[in-house]
Amino acid sequence: MTEEDLQGGLEAVRSRFDLGEYEIEAYLAVLDHGELTAAEIAERTAVPQPRVYDTARSLSESGLVELRESRPMRVLAVDPAEAFAGVQSTLSTLLDRLAERYQTPARGAEAVSLVGSRPTIRRYLEDVITTAEYELVLSLTPALLARFEEELQERRAGGVTIELLLAPAEDAPAPEAYDYGRVATETRARRGVTTPVVAVADGTYSVYTTHGGIGDEEDRYGVIFNQSELGFLVSAFLNVVVWPSATTLAECRGDRPFPRRYATTRRCVADLADADGEFHASVRGREVQSGRRRTVRGAVVDVSVGTNRETATITLDTGEGLVDVGGQVAAIEDLEADEIAVDRGTPPELGGEADRREASEWASGRSDQRE
Fold first, then answer.
1. pLDDT for 320-352, tens place per residue?
2. What is the pLDDT of residues 252-287, one digit of tens each?
3. CB burial readout 196-217, b (16+ within 10 A) else e
4. CATH fold of 3-100
5. Could you tell me the pTM of the whole model?
6. Which end of the chain is more exposed for a tag (fewer CB within 10 A), N or C?
7. CATH of 112-254, one of 3.40.50.2300, 3.30.870.10, 3.60.9.10, 3.20.20.30
8. What distance in Å separates the CA atoms of residue 306 and residue 106, rounded to the nearest whole number?
9. Which residue(s) pair with 136 in the sheet?
């Protein structure tokens, strides 16, 4: 199929389905009865009497009905399989050709994007879920849980921490009827449809929409944060505002082995506060005062949470002094953490060239300061 054929095929499909409101009503009425007169169409639909003949002739020109020029004129239904045979074949060919040209959208450098298509919003939700490496925070409808159940089971089996909130609570399966441990580390339920639909992978890549965004409302939208620090806004809103007002359905936190990775200090502090033994951590982040990238490692000597949970701090003994580690937009700590890895015995690897590059930059910065 050439470029000209492709454009022509798209135009043919568009024109075939370019039916007005009156045409749709009249066509469905004729299908329901097999055949109708013009007067009967007017009686059974909202098509005004003066428009019935024009509407019927338009349907005839599209091959959807047959006209019998009798008195009165009769409008006969054409078998839909026959009426749409040509367009079905054209559409099948079009789909094959369009699929060849389709390029999967890349999550590029664009930090924030707005989408208004329900299928697109759902595709992004799936992408966030399947790309999470170590931490996933979700607020879903029970229907979306069923839709993404296999993906969540796969991520859970891969060691990803999954905090799942379901709303509306009355539609969520009861814990005794559903094994939430297969899909989440902790599951909560919240009343009402005012709860947003959210997915955050590893503290950065996230999707935010409303129940209307994945429902039938015309005014739908989804906001995508592509590996951006702005994803913290979504994560913080979910953790601070939405999550605490929900009821716990199931919790399986104790089954995660060490080492563990975290995108937020608040979640790390909660785990360490409940665990026994000595722990070591590796933290990648940036200095609060200078903004310089830095990776630190050391023994965990203290964890603390602010009175109103506004702060969560981990204190490490690096061997060269104590370093206070806070979460994103930290102010009172020494380091704002992007990623935290915790293990028993020795600090675990954060890994990769990025880790070695940051260590080199930090050492270079220290050298420049000494000079």
1. 999 999 887 788 899 998 889 999 989 998 855
2. 866 677 888 888 888 888 888 888 889 999 999 999
3. bbbbbbbbbbbbbbbbebbeee
4. Arc Repressor Mutant, subunit A (1.10.10)
5. 0.60
6. C
7. 3.30.870.10
8. 39
9. 162, 201
